[in-house]
């Protein structure tokens, strides 16, 4: 029976058997990222998945090392790709009392975007459709028009598409 289930899962999935087994182990047995409704890499951490809205064909957390804190809300559009070790944090906290969240704006990422590895997206950022974020970039402000490549620390437009 287990063999049939695994074959069916693999036939209808873009994921390897090892990814499916590890996902099951960490989410169902060890309860890591158990509230997330899509497969995530075992090194990924997603806080407040109920405040994370995800479009079609977008799977935040399937790359290794992603950290997402959706405390104030994060919305990610259709067909958006997220590289390894990306950080998205939608909340700020008091510098002394780490547990006290300060008001901040949610993060909005448009459709058909690509977030390069090791990028960091901070609270209140809005990225328009077809925005490419270069690897290692720190996105501190919004680029709502989209159709651009941004990179750097802080990120700035390096090319209009």
UniProtKB/TrEMBL annotation:
Gene3D superfamilies: Hexapeptide repeat proteins. GO terms for molecular function: O-acyltransferase activity. One of its GO terms (cellular component) is cytosol. Pfam families: Hexapep, Hexapep_2. InterPro entries: Hexapep (IPR001451), Hexapeptide_acetyltransf (IPR051159), Trimer_LpxA-like_sf (IPR011004). Keywords: Acyltransferase, Transferase. Belongs to the transferase hexapeptide repeat family. This is Acyltransferase. It comes from Chryseobacterium manosquense.
